[in-house]
Amino acid sequence: MGTFIQLVVDGLATGSVYGAIALAIVLVNQSTGMINFAQGGMAVLSAYFAYTLLGLGLPLILAILGSVVVSFVLGALIERFLMRRFEGGDPDTAVVVTIGLLTLITGVAGWIWSYNNLQFPSLFPSASFSVLGAAVSWRSLGTFLVIAAIMVGLQLLFQKTKVGLALRAVADNPKSSAYSGLPVGRLLMIGWGLAAALGAVAGALVAPKLSLTPGMLDGPLTYALAAVILGGLTSPIGVVVAAWLIGVLENLAAVYVPFIGNDLKIAVPFVLLFVVLLVRPQGLFGRKTVVRV
Q: Family, per the entry (predicted)?
């Protein structure tokens, strides 16, 4: 039982990493209707901003808050001067642009800060406490709670606030939103800015666990995209639950399914994804899209 609980706890902690990136992807999609493949790179760049502010002598919490502000502005500027040229056009073109943006950000980060592993301090202590025979670190628990709080906050934002409803309206139909008097351009900038700010939080949570490098989130981004598809693009709660499910099942399969082990556990989320898409293409928590013709 102790081993099982340990695997579940570790899986939830790992899944929280995937969930943080997945939430930022959902935020961009809910506010602009696009999929941002550069989200992982933007989160890494935000972590480097925080690392630089730490080097200037700021306390950790202020450095992270500073990176959140800088990232919000950067995300808004990227939407205004780059992505807006492709919004409303061919979705495939916008996807290619975000992939190119990811490559550019990774290269710029490596050029400025080098490709060496850098140590980033954690917001939470590395000590552990015991729960039913399992060792739970305060860092894992803190990451889990922060992601859970952000998940609930985003759900409330999109469902209960005027700004969230306006962001969803703009993503669904920009022309009708403009005719209704909504400031479409400003809302698109806010959506990208909020996603970049969320990426800054994700980068600060992940960097102490993985060590800070330009490609730090390349692997987690793949799992995050799987969580987005599995949970549904329209549900912040869904993608986080899916990310936790991926982390836990991956750990359990590696230990309790002999032919999988550590070498093949990477295939577990994608097998799960294949099965779910056959049964429920919109994802576990996503909404069906009805198109009138």
A: Belongs to the binding-protein-dependent transport system permease family. LivHM subfamily.
What is the C-alpha separation between 195 and 31, in angstroms, rounded? 9
- Where do the structural domains in the chain lie, given as residue ranges? 2-223
pLDDT digits (tens, 9 = 90+) for 15-68: 888 888 888 888 888 877 788 889 889 999 999 999 999 999 999 999 999 999
Residue 128's DSSP bridge partners are: 137
**Rounded CA separation 191/81 (Å):** 14
DSSP 8-state symbol, 216: T
The position carrying tokens 């329209």 is 234
Structural element, H or E, at residue 228? helix 218-231
Task: Provide the pLDDT for residue 287.
Answer: 62
For 217-221, which contacts have Cβ atoms below 8 Å and span 24 or more sequence positions? 217/21, 217/40, 217/41, 217/43, 217/44, 218/40, 220/17, 220/18, 220/21, 220/40, 221/21, 221/37, 221/39, 221/40
Q: Cα 170 to chain center, whole Å?
A: 21
Alpha-carbon distance of 144 to 17, in angstroms, equals: 9
Find where tokens 């198109």 sit: 291
Residues in the chain where the model's pLDDT stays below 70: 1, 88, 282-284, 286-293
Q: Which two tokens stand for residue 193?
A: 């800015």
Q: pTM, whole model, 2 decimals?
A: 0.87
| Percent helix / strand / coil, the chain, rounded to 5 | 75, 5, 25
Distance between CA atoms of 247 and 241, rounded to whole angstroms?
10
Question: What DSSP state is assigned to residue 129?
Answer: E
